[in-house]
Write a structure and sequence with these properties.
single chain, 3-stranded antiparallel sheet, binds zinc ion, Rossmann fold, alpha/beta
């Protein structure tokens, strides 16, 4: 990482970062992708992982090119840093140090981020807005601590959309094998139900605690997005300051635009018309013992997010 990156030239003065936070497998890729089709918006995926998965591991951008060869990201990096491009491994290590969960107390205490890291990220986000010509940059990095880091930069303004999903459905999804053409192993990361449940509890509550008093906040449930995509997308667009019209969904159908997203759910690699359907496979796929375990572990926050502690009496 360099201490003296060149400042981005004439950044979008009104650019806002819409940060999609939550625990993953919660519809965040779909939400970010659909919003990326709104005039003035650009969906760039999980920017937290640009350096590691994008540049070091050379995984695929949403456009289908490996990130180091993608013309969008090449221009962004050139504009942000010129010939002083940060070393990806060092920057990734700095981000890992800054965003690990054990740094929660430091973020809750509002300690400022490392100066060089802050300068680098400000230049990066300004360049993304500039190259895309966007007023709203959608970053679905999801991590609560990275949200706090971005908010602590001071600019651009960050608005949070907090996506939650029934933790039993998320646990089932995390435990299931899913193909990921952009991952080296060809599969998305899998998690056991205990880890998934504990992360659901900690991340969701941490995100709210870290965000308190920091900026605009909107909570969206996966189940509501699946039931009424147009309404939820309109609410999130308004929250981000985007025009609400034209509608971003018609009934259950929405269109995911071509994109330059880094990291995230492989559905980002398949732009075009998509039908939103609520995925309730967990109701039959998650064993009763596992369901009880996830329910017990997440009980402190289930009602807070409107989920029943008992489901259908089972
Ligand atoms: Zn690309």
């Amino acid at each position: 990482m360099t201490d003296s990156p060149q400042p981005a030239q004439s950044p979008q003065p009104t650019a806002v970062t819409l940060y999609v936070g939550g625990t993953g497998r919660s519809g965040s890729t779909l939400l970010a992708g659909a919003l990326g089709g709104a005039p003035g918006a650009v969906d760039v995926g999980e920017v937290r992982f640009l350096w590691e998965r994008g540049l070091m591991e050379q995984r695929l951008c949403g456009c289908g090119q490996p990130v180091p060869q993608c013309p969008f990201w090449t221009e962004v990096l050139n504009r942000a840093f010129g010939t002083e491009r940060p070393d990806s491994a060092r920057l990734h290590a700095a981000l890992t140090r800054a965003t690990r969960l054990r740094r929660l107390p430091s973020w809750l205490a509002r300690r400022p981020p490392p100066v060089a890291l802050a300068r680098t990220l400000r230049s990066l986000y300004a360049a993304i807005a500039e190259v895309a010509g966007a007023d709203v940059v959608i970053d679905s990095s999801k991590l609560p601590t990275y949200a706090a880091l971005l908010a602590a930069l001071g600019r651009p303004e960050v608005r949070l959309v907090h996506v939650v999903r029934d933790p039993r459905a998320s646990a089932f999804s995390w435990a299931s094998a899913k193909a990921a053409p952009d991952a080296r192993e060809g599969l998305m990361e899998q998690r056991g139900v205990v880890k998934s449940a504990l992360l659901w509890l900690v991340w969701n509550l941490a995100l709210e605690a870290l965000w308190r008093g920091r900026g605009r906040y909107l909570r969206v449930r996966y189940e509501d997005l699946a039931a009424a995509p147009a309404d939820v997308l309109a609410a999130v667009a308004a929250h981000a300051g985007l025009p609400a019209k034209p509608p971003l969904a018609t009934g259950q159908r929405l269109t995911l635009p071509p994109n330059h997203t880094v990291a995230g759910n492989p559905s980002r690699l398949r732009p075009g018309p998509t039908w939103v359907r609520r995925d309730d496979r967990w109701l039959t796929g998650l064993a009763p013992k596992q369901r009880r375990l996830v329910t017990a572990l997440t009980a402190p926050a289930l009602r807070r997010y409107g989920y029943p502690v008992r489901w259908g009496g089972r």
